[in-house]
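seq:
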Amino acid sequence: MKRASPPKPLMAALLFGAMALLAGACSRPDAAGSAASAAAPAAPEPVPAPAGWLADVMVARPKLSWAKVRAAAGELAGLIPATPGALVVTAAGLGVEALPLVDEDLPVVGALADAVGAGPGGRSSAATGAPAAASAAAEVLGVIGVHVRSGSGLVAALTAGAQARFAAQPADSAGLVRLRRKGEPVVAGPTAVGAAIGVLDNYLLFGSSERALGALGPYVARTASRQPPAHEDLVIQVGEAALHGPIQERVERALGKLDPRRWLPALAAVADVKAVGATLRGVLADAKAARLALELDAAGARLGLELEPSSPEAGRRFAAGGLVTPAVLLDLPDDSLLGAAWSEAGEGRADRARSSARSVIAALGRDLPAEVGAELGEALAALSAGRGDRTVAGLRCTGEGLTGFVHGTVADAGKLSGGLDRLLGLRRRGAVAKLLAASGLRLQTAKLRMDGLAAPVTRLRLLPPRQAERTDAPEPIDVLLAVAQDRFVAAAGMSARETLGRIHKPDAQRSLGASPAFARLVESLGKEAWAAVLADPLATVACRAGRPRTTAAAPVLLAAGASGSAGDTKAWLRLDVSVAVIRAIVAQRDVLW
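struct:
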C-alpha cells in the first residue's frame, strides 16, 4: 500500500524535546601501558540499555560549548556561571569543595527512558505511592553523567566532616553510591520520586528521580560514556525501538488531542488533522534512527533533526517529496514578518480540500446546511485541482496595517478560476449571508485591471453594514486575486493593492534578500527543500506595538527536506534562531508573546 508522500510544512509538528546537559566521559586504561597500568582494575563491562530506552545524549566539549552559550547571552553573560564546572556545582548545590574534581574537558553523557519497563516500579502512582502529578512528570526518566577526576574522592569531599552537606548510602549491587542531603529523609526504595544524585565509577550522576538513577545510572556511566564524541555542541541519538515504540505512542496521544473545532477557520482550511497524522505516522514508520543535534556559533543556534530510512524503499519515499526553492523567500517584501514556501503533490489534493472544508465548518461552529458544506468542499477541491504544487505565502506589516499574501504555480487556470467563481457564488446562499451579517460584514465583488498584471483582478471588499454610518466605522478590507496561465497571486488587507504589485514583480532592493542575515540563512539550505518558513520575531514585536522596525534583521528559519543518494536519502528538519532572538528571550522571556 502506498504511503502518503513525506512531510509538507506541517512536518514542523515532528519536533522532539531536548535536555540541557553540561560536562564528562570515561577514560580507559591502556593495556599496553606501564606495569602500574597493567595492574589497575579492568574497566567494568558495558551495561545494556534498559527496557523503554529512548535516547542517548552527549555534550562532547562542555568547556567550548559553554563558552558559546555565554557569548550568545551577550551582556547577560555575567549573570550565569563562568564555567561548566561552576554550573554543575551551583545548580546541584554541591559546594566549592567539589569544583576541583569536576572534569570539564571530557564529554557530558546522558540517557532518557520511558518509565514503563525501565527498571523497578511503574508509571502509575499506585506503584510508586507518589501523587498523580509527580507520577505524570516521571513518565520520562533522565540521567546526566558528569565525569569527575575521582569518584571516591568526590564522595569523600561531599560527605566527610561535621559540616558536610551530604550523606552517602551503601553502594548497591552495581556499585552506585547514592547521595542525599543531610536533613532529608532516607530514600525508601528505587521507585522514590524526586531528583537524585549518585556516584558510579568516575561519574557524578544526576537523575530525574531515584528510580531513574537506578535504572539509567549504570548504563550512562558504563555504556553511553563510551560512544565516540560528536562534533556538534549537543547530540541526542534515538534508536528504532524508541521511534516505533514510546515516541510513536506519544505522537499518537498528541494527535488524539488535536481538535480542529478549537482552531481558527482559516487555519483549519489548510491544516487537516488527518493529513497531519498521516504525515507523521508515515515518517516514523519509514525511519529506523533519529539524530537531533544543536550547534552554536556567533550568528545563533541551529537545531537539526536527521531521520535515517529503514530501507531503500523508505529512502526513495523520502526523496519523492515535492520540492520548492527556498530562495523564493528572499523575493518577499522587506517588511514581511513571515514567509512560507512549500510543495504539495496534486495526488489526493482535492480530497484533502474537501476534508479541509469539513474542518472549516466544524471550526465555525455554525449549523450550516449540508448542501452548503458540500458546495464549499467542491469549490475548494476545484481550487486545489487548478493550482500547482508550489505555493508561497506571507504576512507584511505596512504603515496601514497587516496584509497577507500568497502566490504559486497554476496547473489548470480554467479549474482554478472556476473554483474561485464557485467559492464567490456561495455568498448568495442565505446561510452564508446570515453568517456574514452576524459578523457585522457585507461583501462586494468587482473585476479590476492593474498596471503590470495582464490577467484581470477579482476584488472582494469586506464592508460594515449599510446602516453603520458612523465616524468610527472600520475601513474596508480588500481581497485581490489574479489567475494567469502559469501563476496566481493574491493579497488581503489594508495594503492589498500595493502588496499584489510587489508580489507580482519583486523589487530586489526592497526585498528580504537585500538583508545579509536573511540571505545567508536561506542560502545555507541549498537549492531544494520540502518546505521552509522564515520569520522575524523582533519585527513582529515592534509591529504589534505600532512602532517602526528599529533593529537589524533577526531571522528564524524552520525548514524540512531530504538529502543523500537514491535509496539512502535521509529526511531532515532544522530550526535556525539568530543570536538577537536568543538574547531577547534571555533578557525577557515574554518578549515574543
